[in-house]
Design a protein that fits this description.
heterodimer; A: 619 residues; alpha/beta; Multidrug-efflux Transporter Regulator, Chain: A, Domain 2; Rossmann fold; 9 strands; B: 681 residues; alpha+beta; Methylamine Dehydrogenase, Chain H; 5-stranded antiparallel sheet; 4-stranded antiparallel sheet; 35 strands; elongated; BRCT_dom_sf (chain A); coiled coil (chain A); rRNA processing (chain A); ribonucleoprotein complex binding (chain A)
């Protein structure tokens, strides 16, 4: 009798009834495997792990309810329609019925995924929680070559670019970016939106190669859903900051591939318009102050008057022009407006982020990856320009405080600004302080770039530079607070100087602590030795007979004995555990051991590197 | 003859150098005739030009007409005939004589006279002079210029288009025009009707569907919770991708970069263990290349999302030490042996077995060196040595205090000897007991050979029990009259019972589940335990029936010991496990302790204290607390107490035997290093 014998006529129950293998599911739904896959991807149905795999261990099981869920979806009917449509077109072409073929091709069956988005993510927070993969994927496809005849349609790549820029613009505008990290794989960003930490990866701004080892059908199915999801998420986010969603961009900037910048301007313009409604008089005053600067003032006023009306494109342009004002003049209108409205709503974190690069002006050299920096710097309150057309200000601008360059040498140098490598921006963002720029100057090898996602204390190993940063942070916290009244120009220098002072004192303290530690360790060891001797006298008497004969070997023996003792205790403890618990215990021990080994390895490497470096220095 | 053009070019030079010797060989004709140069040849004979010309006129292309060469020597170098008179043979085989050489002056004179001389060619092969016609000369000159040989051939004639494009104005067929040419098509009409109907019914639409951006505020207020709940099964969100560590940085700290040796060593690892990502360091951001696996990793993530079964896994984040059971403190469980107090040295080979006398004063040991020794426990003095001439596998004191008899398994057989301790009177009695009459073996009348023969051992004044096969174990009944031996390969006579006073043996257990390993008596009742490789059989001796069968679940039992209370049994196995059976509770082990890494050689209970010990080949002995409560509801308490080390391994064997002192909490261990150790509190 087979193991899972069921008498005839008896219903299936338990795992046999609850779970269904994939082949059976495909047969049940009467679709092809490819369509089944697409359905699963779009509906978010995934296999389950039954307690008991009735049909065999190597099979994939789906929950019967999930399959029923798929079977009742209108999408399945739509997919069948598409299949039929394709067949019709094929037939028409084969019969040389061009009319019919054209007519059919003009009206392919389409479907929308908005219902699915709502079904999978009933609340907005749910959607945000699962946004990581979506953003990574969209950013990846945005970096693919938009070339006709490749496996990915150009239209979709452009859509991905647009969506990713819209997302970045929102994050930048609301200053919700928290962490950044340049890895070999690309640049990681972490933002916090509505309390959800969202991490995504953008590839480096270099040409990606379409490889053959991936199935684009699967990826495009995912992308289809992700595009829709991100579209709705962006809509909701833009709505929440009172900006019209499908943003209309300045075509000139768009053509210059400065979409992100265009978007940022659009957003700030849009939100300002809204604010304008409520506080028009205040803004008007500001405007009057600025009116001397350019001849745009008239237009500005026009804009103000029309503010309540619906935004059309020409008006938008004006708004953008008007937005150029604050970038030309520091102490700007934009900042004023922003501070008056948004500050009370922001939490501390956002405030901190917003103020990080405040009063700093950045200029990006040609060779610097523009997109990521144009995203990051405004997100932390800085103003930024770049070399090229459409840039808000030129390289010769006197107010630029930092120029970001990534070349071996800088030929022409303005003394008023610092020339730093891009990593400085990323490190500052992660440390949330303005780091001293010495290590990051042009032509130097920058200090190691550390991941902000690692909890060093939990890991058990703290890289050297992390400690330096920690010290600088502590210094900044103590020193910056009592320095609110100092002018903008002095602030940086004094800050750095103060930091350095602070650092030195900290270092002294550290040294002292280290000394203390050493002393303590020495005492401990002494004590241990005494204990060890006592132990050895108990355990083997011969050892005690000639204690002075072999001091080293004896201490070795003692260490061995102590180790043995510990191991014995361990063994005795584990002897009574159940087998399952013993396995668990062993696994945990092994894990700990592994971690320890890893740390040891890091320490060893560090030591080797240090010693080799010092020996080099001596030579 | 490719040099003709060159000749032409250099003509001027040649003419200027008028006196050149062979300029006479060069002719330049007027007009279309080009200059030709031929080898300066010898003077032609006076062959008539008229007949040559006639032959040229008849000349045709056919190869058949070609005159065969006069000479038949074939294509051989003419040098071969340099010194001969002849130059070959004609068709009839006659020698062809060389002609006389003409003088140069004669030849010159003849050339000067003859106007046709320029057309004459000397044929070296046939040794004759040939005159070519004017036409032939022309053809040759044309060929030299790369023209067609004949002048009247035009290589580029004008193209003549033979096709006529204009209609002649007459039909091919004179049939009248058919009617269908004038009647509207039925099928066309049908198609039109169809289309019209389709348009009217709206099946065909001409306006293109509008492209609308269908984004709207999908998520409204989050207030009403009923709508905001996900339907269907509980949703398991996908695990977030792992966040990058320091090592993934484009510019990691120096310590995260593996050395070249480490990278090379990765190649030796299994592919699953090999690190997927090898950290690299770039000096600046501009030198970072595109990540070639970006697409692949995105794809892998997609696969994970829709192909991997998701389950909720509980991760416990606890200190592993908290998993250990709470044990009573060792101090409360005192006394138990923990330190080595004495070493009994004297044996020269591994000590296989030890036994302590019931009073606790004497210790007997048997070793592979063929000796049995009796030691005084308290001093460690060796009292007696018997040389029995064979491996002593097992040794046991008679548990009766007034019968100091030792039972030892020596080689094949069992030896009972007087231990010669105790008072005179006692010794006398023992001697009586060990006296055996050489009686006529009444067993011989049976057709079967007896399992055991009781023989007198002359040398040692004891008794030998000669078994048919090798004995492995001997165990006394607590009263000291009966004892049992185990013959593992003895088949139906594997477990034997002997009575000392009657000198009688029998084998009551005919059928056992597997090979017997050990057998022992119940400490107080008339019960008997036989341990086979996997089971422990409990027999009632009085009723002669099987009472219980304990299933150990071990691979191979090596030893057994019964708790003094009689209800608990411990069993040691060759896979290093120790099973505690509570026979009242179940036939399965109450607790299994995996404490040794190698075979357990011996397990033993203490008679008085709640202690038990196990000795193993891994050179350790475990002492455990094993408390059995009189309250039946309370399960026995087992606490491992101490690992006793000290024996060294020899030949891969460790501790071979362990025995408790009958009264004190002391443990004797016998090692393969031929030392007996006494561990005390």
């Amino acid at each position: 009798m087979p193991k899972h014998y069921r008498p005839a006529g008896k219903k299936k129950e338990g795992n046999a009834a609850k779970y269904i293998t994939r082949t059976k599911a495909v047969n049940y739904l009467q679709v092809s495997l490819a369509i089944f896959r697409k359905l699963c991807i779009l509906k978010g149905v995934f296999p389950r792990q039954p307690k008991k795999k009735v049909e065999g261990n190597h099979k994939t099981y789906y929950h019967t309810k999930d399959i029923a869920f798929l079977a009742h979806d209108p999408l399945i009917e739509k997919f069948r329609e598409i299949k039929v449509h394709r067949r019709k077109v094929k037939k028409a072409v084969a019969k040389k019925n061009r009319d019919l073929a054209d007519r059919l091709l003009n009206r392919p069956p389409t479907y929308k995924l908005d219902r699915l988005v709502l079904e999978r993510y009933p609340t907005f927070v749910d959607a945000l929680r699962d946004l990581d993969d979506c953003l990574t994927m969209v950013h990846l496809f945005a970096a693919l070559p938009a070339v006709d005849g490749e496996r990915v349609e150009v239209k979709r790549i452009h859509n991905c670019r647009r969506l990713s820029h819209e997302w970045q613009a929102y994050i930048s505008r609301t200053h919700s970016l928290r962490k950044t990290f340049i890895s070999v794989k690309g640049i990681y960003f972490q933002a916090e939106v509505q309390g959800q930490k969202i991490t995504w990866l953008t590839p480096h701004a270099l040409q990606q190669v379409l490889t053959d080892d991936v199935d684009f059908n699967v990826m495009l199915s995912f992308l289809e859903f992700y595009e829709t999801l991100l579209g709705f998420v962006n809509f909701k986010l833009y709505h929440s900051i009172n900006v019209n969603y499908p943003p209309i961009l300045d075509p000139r900037l768009e053509a210059l591939a400065a979409e992100l910048y265009a978007l940022c301007r659009y957003m700030s313009a849009g939100s300002r318009r809204m604010i304008g409604n409520s506080q028009s008089d205040e803004v008007m005053e500001d405007k009057d102050e600025k009116s001397k600067a350019d001849g745009i003032t008239e237009e500005e006023k026009d804009v103000k008057n029309k503010a309540s009306s619906k935004a059309d494109e020409s008006e938008l342009r004006l708004a953008q022009l008007q937005h150029q004002l604050p970038t030309n003049e520091p102490g700007a209108l934009m900042n004023l407006v922003e501070e008056s409205t948004a500050d009370d709503a922001d939490d501390d974190d956002t405030k901190e982020c917003k103020g990080l690069f405040k009063n700093l002006k950045f200029y990006l050299s040609r060779e610097v990856p523009r997109e990521s920096l144009l995203f990051i710097i405004p997100a932390f309150g800085g103003t930024v320009s770049w070399e090229g057309e459409g840039a808000p200000f030129k390289e010769v601008d006197e107010d630029i405080t930092h120029q970001i360059v990534d070349r071996p040498t800088q030929s022409h140098v303005f003394l008023s600004r610092e020339y730093v490598q891009p990593q400085w921006v990323f490190d500052c963002v992660n440390a949330r302080i303005i780091l001293p720029t010495e290590g990051y100057l042009v032509g130097r090898v920058p200090p190691p770039h550390l991941s902000p996602f690692v909890d060093n204390d939990a890991e058990g190993y703290i890289p050297e530079y992390a400690e330096t940063i920690k010290r600088l942070q502590a210094a900044a916290r103590n020193e910056v607070l009592p320095l609110p009244g100092i002018g903008d120009e002095d602030l940086d220098n004094s800050l750095v100087a103060a930091m350095m002072d602070r650092t030195e004192s900290n270092e002294a303290a550290e040294k002292k602590r280290k000394l203390e530690m050493l002393e303590k360790q020495y005492h401990d060891e002494l004590k241990m030795e005494i204990d060890g001797v006592a132990f050895s006298s108990l355990s083997n008497k011969e050892a005690n007979k000639s204690p002075d004969a072999k001091d080293d070997t004896q201490s070795d023996h003692e260490a061995d004995a102590i180790k043995q003792e510990e191991k014995d205790d361990d063994d005795i403890g584990t002897a009574l555990m159940s087998r399952k618990q013993q396995g668990l215990y062993k696994a945990m021990k092994m894990g700990k051991e592994k971690k320890k080994e890893k740390i040891e390895l890091l320490k060893k490497r560090k030591k080797n590197a240090d010693s080799s470096a010092s020996s080099k220095k001596r030579h | 003859m490719g040099h003709s053009d060159g000749e032409h070019v250099h003509e001027g030079d040649d003419l200027s150098a008028d006196d050149s010797s062979w300029s006479d060989g060069v002719w330049s004709e007027d007009g279309d005739e080009e200059s030709l140069s031929f080898e300066d040849s010898g003077e032609g004979s006076g062959s008539d030009g008229e007949s040559d010309e006639a032959a040229a006129a008849e000349e045709s292309d056919s190869s058949e007409d070609e005159v065969a060469p006069r000479n038949t020597v074939g294509d051989v170098p003419l040098e071969w005939y340099k010194d001969e008179e002849h130059i070959g043979y004609d068709i009839d085989g006659r020698k062809i004589k060389k002609r006389d050489r003409e003088g140069r002056i004669e030849a010159y004179l003849r050339n000067a006279d003859d106007a046709k001389n320029w057309r004459k060619i000397y044929d070296e092969y046939n040794d004759e002079e040939v005159q070519i016609t004017k036409d032939e000369a022309k053809i040759i000159s044309r060929l030299l210029k790369g023209k067609t040989p004949h002048t009247n051939v035009d290589p580029y004639p004008d193209y003549v288009d033979w096709f006529e494009y204009e209609d002649k104005g007459h039909p091919l067929s004179s049939a009248p025009e058919p009617k269908r040419r004038f009647v509207p098509s039925k099928w066309e009409q049908k198609k039109v009707v169809k289309l019209v109907r389709a348009i009217r019914n709206g099946w065909i639409k001409f306006d293109k569907p509008k492209e609308e951006r269908n984004l709207y505020l999908l998520w409204g207020d989050e207030a009403d919770t009923a709508d905001n709940k996900r339907h269907g099964l509980s949703y398991i969100p996908p695990p977030k991708p792992k966040l990058p560590g320091h090592e993934e940085s484009y510019n990691p700290s120096i310590e995260y970069i593996p050395t070249q040796e480490e990278i090379d060593s990765y190649q030796l690892m299994y592919e699953e263990d090999r690190p997927k990502f090898i950290p690299k360091r770039f000096e600046s951001l501009r030198s970072v290349p595109a990540y070639e696996k970006a697409l692949r990793e995105g794809f892998d993530r997609c696969l994970d999302l829709y192909l991997c079964p998701r389950t909720r896994k509980k991760r416990i984040n606890i200190d592993p030490e908290s998993l250990k059971p709470k044990l009573p403190s060792k101090k409360d469980l005192r006394p138990y042996p923990k330190t080595c107090y004495l070493e009994f040295k004297g044996h020269t080979s591994p000590v296989k077995s030890i036994s302590v006398e019931i009073s606790g004063q004497w210790l007997a040991s048997g070793s592979c060196d063929g000796t049995i020794r009796v030691w005084e426990v308290e001093t460690g003095r060796c009292l007696k040595v018997w040389n029995v001439g064979g491996d002593v596998r097992h040794i046991a004191w008679n548990p009766s205090p007034d019968r100091p008899i030792l039972a030892a398994v020596v080689g094949h057989d069992l030896l009972l000897i007087n231990a010669e301790v105790g008072s005179e009177e006692m010794q006398m009695r023992v001697k009586d007991l060990l006296k055996i009459d050489e009686m006529a073996p009444q067993d011989d009348t049976d057709d079967k050979k007896p399992a055991v023969r009781w023989m007198k051992h002359e040398k040692l004044d004891g008794i030998t029990l000669i078994h048919q096969k090798a004995v492995s174990n001997v165990e006394w009944h607590y009263k000291g009259d009966y004892f049992t031996t185990v013959v593992p390969t003895g088949d139906t006579r594997a477990v034997l019972l002997h009575q000392l006073t009657k000198k009688h043996s029998h084998h009551p257990f005919r059928k056992l589940p597997g090979l017997p390993v050990a057998a022992t008596f119940h400490p107080s009742q008339k019960m008997f335990f036989v341990a086979t490789k996997k089971f422990v059989q409990v027999y009632d001796l009085q009723k002669a029936q099987l009472v219980k069968k304990l299933e150990s679940g071990l691979r191979e039992i090596s030893s057994i010991s019964i708790h003094p209370g009689g209800d608990n049994v411990i069993v040691g196995s060759k896979d290093g496990k120790l099973c505690w059976f509570d026979t009242d509770l179940s036939t399965r082990p109450y607790k299994t302790l995996k404490i040794h890494s190698k075979d357990i050689t011996r397990v033993t209970f203490h008679r008085k204290h709640p202690l038990f010990a196990s000795a193993s080949e891994d050179c350790t002995a475990y002492v455990c607390h094993g408390m059995v409560y009189s309250d039946l509801n309370q399960n026995p308490l087992i606490v491992p107490l101490e690992i006793l080390r000290g024996h060294s391994s020899s030949d891969g064997r460790g501790v071979l035997d362990c025995k408790f002192h009958p009264k004190q909490p002391w443990l004797f261990t016998a090692g393969a290093d031929s030392v007996i150790r006494l561990y005390c509190d």
